[in-house]
Every structure is written in C-alpha cells, then in structure tokens.
Amino acid sequence: MALSEHVVSGISTAQVGAEYVREVGRNSFRGHHGRGGTETVYVVETDRGVTGWGLPLGPGDPAALIGRNLAELIDPAVGVVDPGAVFLDYPLHDLAARVLGVPVYAMLGATGDPRVRAYSGGIYLDDLDPADAPAGLTAIKANLAQDHELGFRDFKLKLGRGYRWMPSQAGLERDIEVTRLTRELYPDAEILVDPNDGFTVNALVEYLAAVTDCRLYWLEEVFAERYEDYRFLREHLGTLSWQPKIADGEFDPDDAYILRLAQDGLLDIALMDVTGYGLTAWRHLMPKLVEASTEASPHAWGFPLKSLYAAHLAAGLGNIPLVEGVPGHTLGTDGDGYELADGHFTLSDRPGFGIELAG
C-alpha cells in the first residue's frame, strides 16, 4: 500500500522505560546514572488504522500534522521531508515501514546485515563505589562478567577517573589497570575506551604508552575536538605499534566540522547520537562519510530502544561496524526488538522497528 493512501488521523503519547541490569555509576564528569528511566514516545495513527511509534528528537507541534497526507511528511527513500515533522523522525519511519510491510532496515536499503555486532556500553566507574568502601577492580570484573553472560563479547570502558573523582595520576593509573584487566580477562574482545573528554593530551600519551599491547579498537572523546589536538593524536598514533580508531562527534555535533575532520583523516568513526541527531540526518550524512572513508556508530547509551534504532541504521545503511548496547531491557513494550547472542543483535523481520507497545 502506498503512503499517499494514508492520512494522519491521530497523534498521542505513551511512556516506555529502561531497566538496566545493575546500578550504573559515574563517568569522568557526571554522577551516578542509576537503574534506568522513562521516556515519552509519540504514537502516530493513520485513517486506515496503521500505527507507528518511537522516541521524538525534541519538541514539536503534533496538532499541525493531523489531517496531513503521510506521503507529504516522509519519503521512504530519503526520510522525513517536512521540517515541521522532523521531531517525529522515528515514529514516522516506523509508520512508513509498517505501511510498506517491511522492517525499517529494509526500507533504508538493507545495505548491512540484520545480525549486527554490538558492544556493551555499560562499564562505568563502578570501582569507585560505594564511597565509604570502594569495590575497586572487583566491581569491574563483576560487570564485565555480567555483560558477557548477557551475550556481549566487546566492551566500552569509561575512563577519566582523574578528571574529577581521583587525583589525576592515581586516576590515570586506575584507567590503565582497568584496561589491562579487561584485556587479560577477555583476550578476544574488542575494547573501546571513552574518557568523555576527561583526558589531557599528556595523560593520553601516557595512557597509550601503557596499553598499546591491549590492542584497543577505538578511542572515543578523549578530549574536546580541537583540530590541532586531533592532528597531534593522529601523528602520535602513527608512532605506536597498534593504532586504535579515533571516534568522536557525540556531543553537540557540528556537521561541517565533523566532515572536515573525516576528510582530513583525523576521524575514523562518527558518533552522533541516535535521537540527538536523527535518522533522517544520518541518512543524509552517511554517503558523505563513506566518501571520506569514515565509518559511523551512532551513540545509543541510555535506552535499549536507542540501541535498536542504531542496529536498524547499521543493517539498513551499512558502514557501521558495531553499535552500542545497553545492558538492560525496554519496559512497556513486547520486548527489545532484537535478540542478543554471541556479541550480536539479531533484528526481527517484522514491519517497522519490530517492537510493539505493551497493552
């Protein structure tokens, strides 16, 4: 059935939740992340009884879209085409794919594989808690083991303990210990590290010297995206026996600047947030990244639902070697929209994003 045969007849909201498998602690600058949270999703229905839903990108005016022809709002080939409807980017992609009777990744082109490699993004600074008797490396071991048992095989480690929570040198030494411990326990894992801009250039040089043999997969947000610092980093990596990828762009991304870093060979993986940036925006940007020989991996921490979106982007657009997984589950739905096993999400072939609201 064509999208032009559908008119938006109603837009409502619902609540979904995220429940992490454990309490998530601090990163380099922010306090405890808790056990999850709730988010408002939008539900869009057509006059023919087809419904799509999803997280919004931000505020918008739902009333202005009632009575609009669906084909005026979204083109399956490019994404949302009406600026006033962009805030419903994910609900409209879900709805359009359901009308067409295909998974979102198929509507995006099915360039990738519906079996998507996923890493655990949940290894935070839990060694620093509880404050009165810090668990130390025992907590890191336990968290890695729990996420491995869930089905993850690759891990992202939060670093930057010396930025706020520990004396700078002691924090750096703990970051090194945690990295080396992870490699010792999981010799075949891809290890990604993320200080959330909590390193100085000098601290990064010292850190890399101590962990070069750990064969890191990527360095994420090691410091703010200053061009000269990233040029230094690229040159410095060239002196090492192992060269991890440079990943950045999550926080407050500037398209033109991210592309400049990519085109100048200073960025290997672009990380713009799934819902902070948007599916349509990713669809427009990806060909430019491919042209610059730069991969992508949309930031998805916070909600397993965001990991589902990232996985559909990977399966649909390709050029995404792995996606961020959240150790936990989506509440208020009939599942997470994927199966996790042996380090991969396997997406459903159900229409849309393949996940239904409960009740």
TrEMBL record:
GO terms, molecular function: hydro-lyase activity; magnesium ion binding
Record InterPro entries: Enolase-like_C_sf (IPR036849), Enolase-like_N (IPR029017), Enolase_C-like (IPR029065), Mandelate_racemase_C (IPR013342), RHMD-like (IPR046945)
Pfam families: MR_MLE_C
Keyword Kinase applies: no
Keywords: Magnesium, Metal-binding
Cofactors that this protein relies on: Mg(2+)
Mandelate racemase/muconate lactonizing enzyme C-terminal domain location: 137-240
Source domain of life: Bacteria
An example Gene Ontology biological process: carbohydrate catabolic process
Entry coiled-coil feature ranges: none
Name this protein carries in UniProt: L-alanine-DL-glutamate epimerase-like enolase superfamily enzyme
Organism: Kribbella amoyensis
Lineage of the species this protein comes from: Bacteria, Bacillati, Actinomycetota, Actinomycetes, Propionibacteriales
